[in-house]
Amino acid sequence: MAVLDPFGASFDAYAVLGVSMLAGPDEIRHAYRGLAHRLHPDTNPNDPATAARFAEVSAAYELLRDDAKRRAYDLQRAALSGPRASRAAPGPTGNTQVRGPGARPSHHPHAGPGGVARELRETDELAVLRWFLRVAAVALILFLIAVALLALHPAPPCGSTNELPCRVTTESPAR
Predict the structure, then answer these.
(1) pLDDT at 146 over 50
(2) Are 20 and 108 spatial neighbours (Cβ–Cβ below 8 Å)?
(3) Minimum mean pLDDT among 29-43, 63-77, 105-119, 136-150: which range?
(4) Is the pLDDT of residue 68 over 70?
(5) pTM
(6) Is pLDDT at 117 greater than 50 in this prediction?
(7) CA–CA separation, 81 vs 156, rounded Å?
(8) Is 136 within 8 Å of 124 (Cβ atoms)?
(9) CA nearest 88: which of 31, 18, 15, 20?
(10) What percent of the chain has pLDDT over 90?
(11) 55 vs 162: CA distance, rounded Å
(12) Average pLDDT, rounded, for the chain
């Protein structure tokens, strides 16, 4: 299998193309074509930095356009960098900060605070439903304990000054 990280540890294919991890094939292709048009060596014949950036963009596109390579890259990236990794290479807008006050906001539908696309996790509605079910289970248990305690508590004998329901005794009163 080909080396997944052709430009060293600072290579981030998503940041190079300026797309999120949730980007689809069309969005990746669109980002690549725009950058390739702008950075192509024929367009900038005397700029070696642009040629190097074009090679980086091409490598990122080759990596992300193939589903198997992309899956392997995502696994390797998650294992090496962890869930709180920041962007090492600037995106097309020059944004290198992913989290914090300097991060630029994203307009992606799954973007969280700081413009970072949040990972897919439980929805808020599911969390509220689980909390409600836990509270209902505790309330049901408390209700059953109260019913059991009332069933075990005997009623007062009849003839007392109490107007509550009473129990009839079979003993004859002592005279």
Answers:
(1) yes
(2) yes
(3) 105-119
(4) yes
(5) 0.43
(6) no
(7) 72
(8) no
(9) 15
(10) 21
(11) 94
(12) 74
For residue 126, pLDDT beyond 60: yes
Superfamily of domain covering 13-115: DnaJ domain (1.10.287.110)
Single-letter code of the amino acid located at 124 = D
Burial category of 127 from C-beta neighbours within 10 Å (exposed 0-12, middle 13-18, buried 19 and up): exposed
Residues of the chain with CATH 1.10.287.110: 13-115
Nearest to 170 by CA among 155, 158, 162, 152: 158
Q: The tokens of 84 are what?
A: 């709180």
Whole-number Å distance between alpha carbons of 14 and 108: 14
C-alpha dist (Å) from residue 114 to 13, 20, 69, 81? 20, 13, 28, 19
